[in-house]
Amino acid sequence: MQEKAKIGVLTISDRASRGEYEDISGKYIIDYLNEVLTSPFEVIYRIVPDERDIIEGALIHMSDVENCCLILTTGGTGPAPRDVTPEATQAVCEKILPGFGELMRSVSLAQVPTAILSRQLAGIRGKTLIINLPGKPQSIKVCLDAVFPAVPYCIDLIGGPYITTDEKKIKAFRPPK
Ligand SMILES: Nc1ncnc2c1ncn2[C@@H]1O[C@H](COP(=O)(O)OP(=O)(O)OP(=O)(O)O)[C@@H](O)[C@H]1O
Ligand SMILES: Nc1nc2c(c(=O)[nH]1)N[C@H]1C(S)=C(S)[C@@H](COP(=O)(O)O)O[C@H]1N2
């Protein structure tokens, strides 16, 4: 039987964590995964405030304890004083993959000039690929559509489960052997 992938969805938002508004972004990411992935997976979902130590703790737990092969964060990537998601991500990762942030900012910039305000990044902790997405619900699809073709192969390279996608939605690219 195919190994079930564990995927972390981490919403980072002061107000959504206090219940002041509904976490649309985290729900959207889960819907996106259900639409696009054809291999079995399980979502580990958590919502935390914009506090660096809490974010780091959640990322470490999802990676080291839950063994997630992929963690998608949303929120806290901007320039405001409480936006610390990239710092927390950088602190827990052994390697940064700058291409992810570059591509996500570039596709977002075609939609909104303030896309350059997002400091979103991606990196590797152990056998986990961590990708930061902006907090705005409408930013998630454009960012995920851009980078997702490279995600399954990246997970192969770090020793994770073999992930497949619905090719009509996302055409995952694996270089020929
Ligand atoms: N999880 C979410 N669900 C719905 N909307 C969100 C979510 N996170 C962010 N947003 C929206 O995107 C905007 C920018 O996101 P950002 O992460 O900078 O949040 P923020 O303004 O710091 O607010 P907070 O951390 O208090 O939620 C927010 O002001 C909010 O309108
Ligand atoms: N695709 C897309 N990217 C986007 C945006 C957007 O509306 N769409 N908003 C930008 C804005 S206004 C900010 S401040 C940054 C950071 O957002 P965050 O703090 O919610 O993560 O993401 C940017 N990236």
TrEMBL record:
Name of a matching Pfam family: MoCF_biosynth
Record GO biological process: Mo-molybdopterin cofactor biosynthetic process
SMART domains from the UniProt entry: MoCF_biosynth
Catalytic activity: molybdopterin + ATP + H(+) = adenylyl-molybdopterin + diphosphate
Origin: domain of life: Bacteria
InterPro entries hit by this protein: MoaB/Mog-like_dom_sf, MoaB/Mog_dom, MoCF_biosynth_CS, MPT_Adenylyltrnsfr/MoaC-Rel
Domain (MoaB/Mog) ranges: 8-154
Enzyme Commission number: 2.7.7.75
Keyword Metal-binding carried by entry: no
The entry's keywords: ATP-binding, Molybdenum cofactor biosynthesis, Nucleotide-binding, Nucleotidyltransferase, Transferase
Function text: Catalyzes the adenylation of molybdopterin as part of the biosynthesis of the molybdenum-cofactor.
Protein name: Molybdopterin adenylyltransferase
Source species: Hydrogenobacter hydrogenophilus
Taxonomic classification: Bacteria, Pseudomonadati, Aquificota, Aquificia, Aquificales
